[in-house]
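Incident review: delayed structure delivery

Summary: a single-chain prediction request sat in the queue longer than the usual turnaround. Root cause was a stuck worker, restarted by the on-call engineer. No data loss occurred. The affected request and its eventual output are reproduced below so the record is complete for anyone auditing the incident later.

Affected input:
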Amino acid sequence: MLPIAVDAMGGDKGPAEIVAAARQAASELGVPVLLVGDPDAIGDAGGLEILAASEVITMDEDAATGVRRKKDASVVRAAESVREGRASAMVSAGNTGAAMGSALLRMGRLPGVNRPAIATPIPVPGSIPTVLLDSGANAECQA
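Output delivered after worker restart:
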């Protein structure tokens, strides 16, 4: 099973929280994880593989500019790892626009998909897992 590439540098609290959650998921769920980011900032990966990335696209940075200029950004490298077959999926808690832009530019679209959607899980007690698509990322949705 290919790992899930996790942008360890994305998010508001730095890599510590993301690495801890990735380690927990790997341990409790048996999910292989590829951490993407600065190995020094990641620190103890708990045996998880690290893909080094020297740059970060911050939350307040223009996503399109960041993706174009920062070729070694963690979110860009995570998308590349999926394109290259090194990971099966990517996850980022960082700049949503940068995650979407990286995925589009590095992975492309499936045939027939004009605009990708963002999935948001919705917890429904006592029900099957529910996912809402296109949860605010695109103001010009078309059926």
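Verification: The chain has one domain: 4-114.
Action items: add queue-age alerting; document worker restart procedure.
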